[in-house]
Amino acid sequence: TDAIAEKTEALQARRLAGEPIAYLLGEWSFCGLPFFVSPAALIPRVDTEMLAQLAMNRLKEHPGHTRILDLCAGTGCVGLTAAALLKNTRAVLVDLSDGALDLCKRNIRRHKLTGRAVSLKGDALQAPSHALGQFDVLVCNPPYIPTGDLAALDTSVKDFEPLLALDGGEDGLDFYRAIVENYTPALKKGGFVCFEFGMGQGDDVCRILEENGYTILERTRDYNDRERAVLAQYGRKED
Predict the structure, then answer these.
(1) Please, are residues 42 and 165 in contact by the beta-carbon 8 Å criterion?
(2) Residues ≥6 apart with Cβ < 8 Å to 34
(3) What is the spatial distance between Cα 16 and Cα 1, in angstroms, rounded to a whole number?
(4) Sequence-ordered list of residues with C-beta below 8 angstroms from that of 210, at least 6 positions apart, any chain
């Protein structure tokens, strides 16, 4: 029909302009689960599945109910995957962007997690309210691109995905320093932090964690064999 032809041509024009296919479709898969997406948040990437797996491996070890905090949540894909696949886990999704929080709410409903997941507005660079409570695992894929490197990103990223979710400050490490300083009190005793990081940032991120009382338990690589994520525990002493 003419209506379908017009819609197809409009989508084609957007794709030829460099817009990611995920935004054209309005949804994308993460860990085998579908999530609503929009230009308000980063598109879930397969590399970030390593981060989700690190978190879930720790949550599985707890016999009772657990809580996961997904900070800089975006679509909420990491925290909601944990809640969807681990029936004893409750998720709190925190983001500063109203558009991202709208996606989180839609994805909570999509996966029928209204009773076990909630989205809240919050700034990862500022201390959280005590009302947030404490968590077994804090998971975060923060902005980690150094400001000076943003211009060199692929057009599909820099022109379409949100700058707020990309810019990690002069050295790309602003969020790691702030989160470790501000959110450590939100961890239960012996709680865990899982961070994703960019290429070549692993040593620096681990140093920030260790300088603030964390023990590095695992550093893992993505499907392209690039170091991608770290798991650390607060207050644990080396054997």
Answers:
(1) yes
(2) 27, 28, 110
(3) 22
(4) 216, 232
